[in-house]
Amino acid sequence: MANIEYVFGIHAVQTKLQRNPERVQEIWLQEGREDQRLNQVKALADEQGIECQIMPRRDLDNKVKGRHQGVVAGCTPNPAKDEHFLTQLLEELKEPAFLLILDGVTDPHNLGACLRTADAAGVHAVIAPKDKSASLNSTVSKVACGAAESIPFVQVTNLARCLKSLQDAGVWITGTAGEAIQHIHQTDLTGNMALVMGAEGEGMRRLTREGCDQLVKIPMAGEVSSLNVSVAAGVCLFEAVRQRS
């Protein structure tokens, strides 16, 4: 199939069938595997009139890299949202904006984990630059466990310009940096806000850092100097959830 991406794993395929069935072209199920969760996937596919093919496990293994749990779906790609979508989202929100910005996160596993965490925290959208950042793909969908379908992922051409536009719209930009003086728990994270997470090791780029209204850090008590970006995002986002609730 031309222009098809493979989504795999029971939860990822099930979410795709529930939220975007029009994008699912075909489903392959593992031969000889009969269990309740796979039967639920097949029942959803049957409801949507989507064909399911049975194939040996080795053929499924050859289709994707990762643990497919006996199911792979061929889907039309999930396009990222753009700046226009973000502007419209902010205009239509009936509550204070809650955004996550990822600057230079290139590992699809980390992107998937961040999407999953952001979805759990009630974030309205995840924003990333188009260049030098991970894009939505089958690995992201698998790790995100359905969040890649439920939370808007916005890719912007110029992140520094996007930060300025958010500020003009009344959004307060909070960046995370190890050298910051203020702890995340000492910071007001209520109201319209966007949390910026930088790449592991390098952190935020200079222009991104300069575009933030404030910088905060996670207090670290042990020998480890930094956390995985998805773990750090979880700590910061749920501190915001605590304050905002």
Mean pLDDT: 91
Number of domains: 2
Oligomeric form of this entry?
single chain
Spatial order of the strands forming the largest sheet: 7-6-5-10-8-11-9
Query: What percentage of amino acids are in beta strands?
Result: 15-25%
Anisotropy-based shape: elongated
- Please compute the radius of gyration using only Cα atoms: 20 Å
Describe what you observe in this structure.
This protein has 245 residues and is α/β, with parallel strands linked by helices. It folds into two domains: 5-75, 60s Ribosomal Protein L30, Chain: A, CATH 3.30.1330.30; 83-244, Alpha/beta knot. Helix content is 39%, strand content 21%. The chain has helices spanning 10-19, 36-48, 57-63, 83-92, 108-121, 138-144, 147-150, 159-168, 206-210, 229-244, and strands spanning 5-8, 24-30, 52-55, 71-75, 98-103, 125-129, 153-156, 172-176, 182-183, 193-198, 214-217. A seven-stranded parallel β-sheet has the order 7-6-5-10-8-11-9, sandwiched between helices. The chain starts with a strand and ends with a helix. The relative contact order is 0.15.
